[in-house]
Specification:
This protein is α/β, with parallel strands linked by helices and about 300 residues long. About 40% of the residues lie in helices and about 15% in strands. Helix 1 packs across helix 2. The chain is globular and about 50 Å long.
């Protein structure tokens, strides 16, 4: 299996160019523009995924809601990350610049899955005025505020410590790849995704969606961002969000961002709702799309009161 075809130069209607020249693919639904008072929801995906992460969530949201989705650099239809540009800080700056360009006024609700949730934390730390003046709600979906360099994928003892030592090697290997193409066996990729990022009895369509997006990610960018995730420390950003209406969503079978990581976030946000999903893994937007949409919609409703 090779990577799916990637659109590295998004068409004009779906193109946003960041301050360093990187072209990002943007997708929008709902009203074409904000009237200055209506809420805009911005959805941020995670590592090796793209804006399609939210495909299963979108139908359960209010069709009249303005929703902005985009592909992080190095993912989906966006340009690869440049050397030194595969950092959570750069992703936070991309998000701030995209908001300034596409949603210059009106209240915002932001939802981030996995690395997308990390991006929200760093956004709050690097762009506090944006958070203070615009942010009306935040959803942290299967994410972490740190200690990802201690990841064991749920394995105990020596096996878990081996996983921790092996991860940096994978990151370095991917970062050195010069080709956009990975040749992988479909069955191996699908089986690995099912076991690693899903909980109990995932649907075939949901697994295939994750695999297709994974194969659209730029391999070298994925490797560099893996290092960025390991280095991520987002507690400072959470401090800037403690007064923002928030929800923390976590799958009890999540191997990548374990339940304990979600609890750290909830503890840092004393007014946040902490929701646990029994039997669910890391891919909550695919595994529990209705429930994720319901929690995000509650933040949107609260922002309109």
């Amino acid at each position: 299996m090779t990577t799916a075809s990637r659109l590295r130069e998004p068409s004009a209607g779906h193109r946003f160019v960041a301050s360093d020249g990187a072209a990002l693919h943007v997708s929008q639904s709902g009203p074409a523009a904000s009237d200055g008072s209506a809420v805009t929801l911005v959805l941020v995906h995670g590592w090796t995924q793209d804006h399609r992460t939210w495909d299963f969530v979108l139908p359960h949201l209010d069709p009249g809601l303005r929703v902005l989705r985009y592909d992080l650099r190095g993912h989906g239809g966006s340009a690869p990350a440049r050397p030194g540009g595969a950092t959570i800080a750069r992703l936070a700056d991309d998000l701030a610049e995209l908001i300034a360009d596409r949603v210059p006024d009106g209240p915002l609700v932001l939802a981030g899955h996995s690395m997308g949730g990390m991006t929200l934390m760093v956004l709050a730390e690097r762009h506090p005025s944006l958070v203070a003046s615009r942010l009306a709600g935040a959803a942290f979906v299967a994410t972490s505020s740190g200690d990802m360099d201690q990841l064991t994928l749920g394995f105990p003892g020596l096996v878990g410590r081996g996983v921790t030592r092996f991860e940096p090697r994978v990151a370095r290997l991917l970062a050195r790849l010069r080709s956009d193409t990975l040749r992988l066996r479909p069955g191996v990729v699908r089986s690995g995704a099912r076991r690693l990022v899903f909980g109990v009895r995932p649907g075939r369509e949901q697994v295939d969606s994750v695999v297709e997006q994974l194969l659209c990610a730029h391999p070298a960018s994925a490797g560099m961002f893996l290092d960025a995730i390991a280095a991520h420390r987002g507690v400072g950003g959470l401090g800037a969000l403690c007064d923002v209406p928030s929800v923390v969503l976590a799958g009890e079978k999540d191997r990548l961002c374990p339940l304990a990581h979600a609890k750290v976030i909830a503890d840092e946000l004393p007014h946040a709702e902490f929701v646990r999903f029994p039997g669910a893994g890391h891919m909550l937007p695919q595994e529990r799309p209705f429930e994720v949409a319901r929690r995000i919609s509650a933040l949107v409703r609260a922002a309109t009161r």
